[in-house]
Every structure is written in C-alpha cells, then in structure tokens.
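Hi C.,

You asked whether I'd gotten around to modeling the 411-residue construct. I have! Everything is below, sequence then structure, no commentary in between.
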Amino acid sequence: MVHISTRTSILVVLLAPLAAFLAGRVRVLSLAYFNAPTRMPSYANFTSYEIKFADRIRNCEDALLVEARGLALLACDPGRETWNTVMGDFADSVEPDPNAELYAYKYTDPSLPDTQSLVRIEVVGLRSELRTLGIEFHEPTSTLFVTNHRRQGSRIEQFHLDLETLTATHLRSLSHPLIRIPNSIAALSDSEFFVTNQHHFTARESSRLLWAFETYVAPPIASVVHARILEDEDEDGEALDAAVVARQAYPNGIVLLNETTLAVAATNKRLVNLYAVSSGSTQTQTLHPSLKLESSIWLPFLPDNLAVSKSDGALLIAGHPHLPSLNKFARSRRLCHRPEALAEGGQEAQKRMCATTRAASWASEWTPKGMVKHIYAGWEYPSSASVVRDREKGVGIVAGLYAKGLLVWRD
C-alpha cells in the first residue's frame, strides 16, 4: 500500500507541470473560439469616438502621451506590410519601403483641422533604414528611444526630441549581443532603460521551426534586459552595459507602474506579469537591478503594448483578441493598403477580400482595487497594439498594428 502511494505521488509530481502547461495553452487557444466574430463581446465605455487620419497614417504600433503638452507621439511604419520581424513576415524580393515616420498629434482641441493637429516629426541625422516598433520618451531630458528592426539588424535609436520645433535629432545607435530583437522600452533616465526581446529565436536569423515552436508553445526563454549607456566603449567595443534580468514567454510591452513595480506583457500566454524591482548597488556600474515575479494579470486577449494613466496610475493594456483573424488581416494588407498592387491585380474579388477581411481590437485597464475593466472591444477598428489615455482631458487613443489612422475617444 505504501509502495502504491509513493508511485502515485511521484506520478502526480511529474504530471502536475504538464497539466499546468496544457491548461495554459488551452486558455490561449480557446480565444480562437470565444473571440470569433460572431461570439466576441463588444465594449465601448466612452461617450464618443472617431477614426482619425485614416488617409494619412497607418501601422502605428506604438503611441505615448506627453500630457503636459497635450501631445501624443506616434511611430508609424507603412513598411510593416513587407517587413515584420515579430510575426515573421518578410518580402525580401520587394524594394524596401520609405522609412517609418514619427508624428505628434495635438489631441486637446477637437476643433483643429486634421492638417494642423497631426504633424510629422522631422528626423535629423539618422542615416539608415528605420523600421519602428516601440518608442519611449524620457520627458525630463527630452530623450526619445526608438526600437529599429532594419534589414541590416535590429538596434535601438536614441534621439533628442525638441517638442517646440518637433525635431528629433539622432544621437546614437545602440546595439548589444543581449538585445537581439528589441521590442518595447521603459526608460529610467536618458542613459538607462529596460527593454524586451520578444523572442529568443528570431524568425530571420534562427531556424524558422524554432521560432514557431517558441511562438506557439511559449517556453519562458525570451528575455527582459536592463541596460546602461556607457560614456566610453568598453573593452569589447560595446556602448552598452547590459544584463538579462528576467526570462519569460514572449515579453512584449513593458512599463514602470511605479518605482518598484515593472509590468511586462507575455503575449502568447494572454497575461501581464508584474515584477518587483530591487535596485542594484550604486557602488559599481556593473551591477543591475533584479526582478522578482510577484503576480500576473489574466486577460481575454493577447496583450501587446502597455501604458500607465498618469492621473490614476491605471495600467492600460491593448492587444489582439482573435489571432486567426489578425494573421489573415496582416497578410492581406500587403495588397489592400497599396493601391498600385490592387490596380495590378485588377480583380474585383481582391477588392472584395480587402473590404471584408477584418481584425479585432481590445483595450482594457487594470488597477489593484478595480481589477480589469474593458474600455473598447470590437471589429470597427482593427489590430489594436497600443492604448493611451489623458483622463483629465477626457481623451483616449488606440493605435493599430496594421490599421489606417487612430481610434480617438472622448468622455
């Protein structure tokens, strides 16, 4: 009897991790059923909304607010349709698109005409391809960080952003062996930041099979990196002192909730991880902060970018509720967003496909007391990747990975 009990206990110990893994995968895969077009719930918890600038900008994956100025900063890359390192979509035979653009949206005055409220930021001194993903602005020092997934290799671009003239002057390009596929950045200063690598195996440089395995099986092998910019290059010729401070599945959006809590999206596990941040020693620059996983937030969608609402400290989360639709929508935009490609096809069936292919959006907020509340969920505006809000001015913005324009709501 004791022998059977021991064997059973061992079996339970061995099977428990497998059961937990399978349960997690089922929770993710179930979104394909529960968030299908005929089943997904819809939310619109605001007074009114409109889709703005659909004729001027598209594929604005990341957005952030400078609330003191009433500005939203945007990174928009039409070239994502032919070059997407995150989703593994590459068109090597296609001539590279013009560089991604940075924009400033003056959101406080709804009476301003679109030509005046949306202004392109002039980029000065950058002499390379620019394929944007995440952006981060350290307001006290006017420092702008931009992740750049150019064809020659991913890196982080650092700019000085003049908000008076809306000019971004390139300061330096930052790369490091530990920052192979940077996605989102949380700045601590003009020379220190956390950055996520959303994969360990990249779709272009690693085995495509390994990339797919990591994407869909979700092993905790991708990294969150802490980095400091060095005044002088080290003995290895590096301009960054960097260290891996956490590993998890698919780290995507990242933001500091406060001085001691860091939030990191785990996209392919439909959750956001909350880490306690412990400072490193101030006696030497070789030590880095440590992260300890404290809790996780489950969501009814796959989270992408994160932001914090300044007035109330709420964590804002945007993401993708129905992956099959997003994949189909992303593939279709290479044709549907390009009039010249449609003209070459010359088929009415292709035009109908473009009009009927859709992708869903979902944006929510989380607070420790109120937990998760949903702001918007629906199919009217596609592929939400970022959500930001200025509660005092009653304005919020959703930006879409493959969307034309922005969803702007007002309360």
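If it helps when you're writing up: The mean pLDDT is 90.

Thanks,
B.
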